[in-house]
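Proteins fold reproducibly. Next comes a concrete instance:

***
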Amino acid sequence: MTTDFILQTQKLTKEFKGFIAVDKVDLNVRRGTIHAMIGPNGAGKTTCFNLLTKFIKPTSGSILFNGDNITTDAPAQIARRGIIRSFQISAVFPHLSVLENVRVALQRKLGTSFHFWRSEKSLDRLNARAMDLLREVDLEAYADTVTVELSYGRKRALEIATTMAMDPELMLLDEPTQGMGLEDVDRIRQLIKKVAANRTVLMVEHNMSVVASIADTITVLQRGATLAEGPYSEVSKNPAVIEAYMGSADTELVGAH
C-alpha cells in the first residue's frame, strides 16, 4: 500500500449462491483524482460500490482506505472515516426546502440527527455553511424552493451538496448523470470537476462523453472482473473494451453511452 492511493481493493470478490458478481477485483484509486468505473450492464459496478460502502459483505478479498484495512467495518464506520456515497436514485427530502435539505445533512455531521426536541433556531448557525455549499453547486438562488419543484438535474446537484455536507474525503457517485438531458449533464459534469478540486471522486457512469472529459483513470469491468484500467485515451482504444461495449473490435469507443 502506498500513500498515493486513498482506496485499494485486493482480490475483492462477491458470490451470490454460486454466481460471482465481483471477481477478484484489484482497484487502485489515486488520491485527489476522479476515477471512473465503467462497464456493460451486469458488469458488477453497483455491486462493487455496495461492497466498498459495506451495504453488502465481500465473500473474500480486502478493502484498504488510507492504508487501513476496512473490510470488516460497518456502513456507519465507513461514513465516519470519510467515504460518502450519493445514490443512483436522487436521495433528498422532496418536501423540505433546498436549504433545509443541506442543513439536515450538516446536522448529521454534527451527530445531532435525533435531537428533535431542540428548537429549530438551534440549527440557524448551520445556515451560513449550508448557503456556502449551495453556492458551490450553483443552487444559492433556489435556497427557499421546495425540493420537489426542482428540475431533475438540480435535484442531483442538491444531492451532491448534501453529500459534500458530510465532508467526504472520498466521494462515491453512482450514475450522477443518469436520465438527464444534455444541459443537465453538462452542469453535473462541471460540478463534479469543481467538487473534485479538493477531494477524491470515484464514480460509476454510463455516459462515455462525461467519463472521457473528466476522469483521470478508468477501470473497465466485465462480468465482475477488471477488463482494463488506465486513462481514457488508452482504455478507449483497447480492443477487448471496444468489443465488450460494441460487440466488435473494429468500432471506435468515442461518445458511446
